[in-house]
Amino acid sequence: MSNEKVVIDNVSYSYKEDKKTQESLDAIKDVNFTVNEGEIVTIVGPSGCGKSTLLDIISGMLRPTKGEVKIDGNRVTGPGKDLGIVQQGYALFPWRTVLENIEFGLEIRQIPQKERREIAKKYIRKVGLGGYENKYPDSLSGGMKQRVSIARAMSYKPKLLIMDEPFAALDPRTREVMQNELLYLSRSEKPTILFVTHDVREAVLLSDKIVVMTGGPGSVKAIIDVKFPEERKIEDIVTLKEFDELEKKIRKLYGNPNEIPNDAVF
Amino acid sequence: MEKELKERKQVARIFRNLIPIIIFLVIWELCPRLGILNKNMIPPFSDAIVALKDMIVSLEIFRHLGWSLYRAVLGFSLALVIGIPLGTAIGWNEKIREFLSPLLTLFGNVSPIALFPFFIIVFGIGEVSKIGIVFWGCLWPMFMNTISGVSHSDKALIKAARTMGASKKTVLFSVVIPNALPEIYPGIKLSVSNSILMLCAGEMLGATAGLGYLISYSQQIFEMSKMYASIIIIALLGLAFTAILNTVEKRVFAWKFNNEK
Ligand SMILES: Nc1ncnc2c1ncn2[C@@H]1O[C@H](COP(=O)(O)OP(=O)(O)OP(=O)(O)O)[C@@H](O)[C@H]1O
Ligand SMILES: [Mg+2]
């Protein structure tokens, strides 16, 4: 089909664990799913189940040990040209100011200095960091760094946005603003968005499709299609009956992280 | 108002730092005069200053200073233009780095002073030998720190740049090198202080001009005041270099010292 943006075809990955013992670790095994053009797909799953590893493979930073990833029908062999990523650790350049960090991707695309400034400033306002243009990242809070990282990935309008827990460090209010911003971006620019979250509610709110993963080794447990009215607004969706049902369903699949095993002894 | 207060505080700090130096100079002045130290070996501070003034008036000092600066700057610059690019290349290439690392560790640990006889045998006692010694002493700190800094680059930052579409070259110049600079710079500082050290030692071994020569020559003809005057000049030279390096550091690493640009 022509509107398949990302095809993950039977992908496995093992980390070469130790130089001495030669042992390797199966991080993910036989993962299959497809992301259609313009969709928002979220990946949920317990810590360590290989979500970041999978994103690294899709973004071309890791070569799968088995299987392949196709973007726009082409096998991925290295970092793609039209890709924006937000990493778990923000990965801001500490020697660049907020503004200069956001300009990085634009510089690579050889956008003239003046235009670059304007675009960067627009995105700084979008993520609510007006007034912080000339600060260095070391002086920002975790949530602020995260927003710089998001602005940096969005600023050059990549066709594919890959985000690893992009809103994890944000307070609830800012998080909601950013979620709405993401929905707005999705509608206006129609990028394909793939992102990881630990927040089931967030996954249900934002996605067209939810991929539930489990660990040991990481694999896909379920893929759930989410169908809400076209013009999503977070305030409206949370009142829907379907929203509650879906959230419950995924929580069940996800497993309760606080669940105490039957044979636990105290 | 606030600025004025800041300035006043700074002046006070400079004075505080000067106190121990002033005490030292007073002791230096008094001990030979009171006969506690032998005046022939250690003349009073003021004698050294008079000798210094004489050398400035007769312009003698500038000839020596000129030669020394020429050797130091040339030796250091050669080490810089060779050490940093070469260090970057080796640090960037894991295979070459791992292969060479035992050899480099060995070379880096040979005291440059121990290599003096080698330089003299190979290059004679002329300019080449002296500049070569300075070069060698300056090379290693910069070279080794560059290799280390470049090889320790932050993987997440490289990933960020690569996925934004940066070429290998852009990654090297816009990410790896800036990321390594905080480790390269202390190497540069060490090289600069090594340059003065190696210079003095090299000029004492055989030269007809230069501050190191001036020190050993004054000692040989027993003009102690002149010898101490030369030592003072070398100390001032070191201070000047340090001041320049610190100013550059504050500019290059503005992001480390300030919250904003
Ligand atoms: N560089 C690495 N070398 C070796 N093993 C690794 C490496 N990175 C991750 N792993 C292992 O691979 C597995 C999956 O890690 P990954 O970071 O993909 O998990 P994750 O689902 O993103 O977890 P989290 O939700 O905590 O971010 C883990 O068992 C981890 O220990
Ligand atoms: Mg992760």
From TrEMBL, chain A:
Highest taxon of the lineage: Bacteria
UniProt keyword annotations, A-Z: ATP-binding, Nucleotide-binding, Transport
Residue ranges constituting the ABC transporter domain according to the UniProt record: 6-240
SMART domains recorded: AAA (SM00382)
Tagged with keyword ATP-binding: yes
Source organism of the structure: Acetitomaculum ruminis DSM 5522
InterPro entries: AAA+_ATPase (IPR003593), ABC_transporter-like_ATP-bd (IPR003439), ABC_transporter-like_CS (IPR017871), ABC_transporter_ATP-bind (IPR050166), P-loop_NTPase (IPR027417)
Record lineage: Bacteria, Bacillati, Bacillota, Clostridia, Lachnospirales
Name this polypeptide is given: NitT/TauT family transport system ATP-binding protein
The keyword Nucleotide-binding belongs to this UniProt entry's keyword annotation: yes
Automatic annotation (TrEMBL), chain B:
Ranges that cross the membrane: 14-36, 69-92, 104-125, 131-150, 194-215, 227-248
Biological processes, Gene Ontology terms: transmembrane transport
GO cellular component terms, semicolon-separated: plasma membrane
Name of protein: NitT/TauT family transport system permease protein
Domain ABC transmembrane type-1: 65-245
Pfam families: BPD_transp_1 (PF00528)
Record-stated family: Belongs to the binding-protein-dependent transport system permease family.
Entry membrane topology: Multi-pass membrane protein
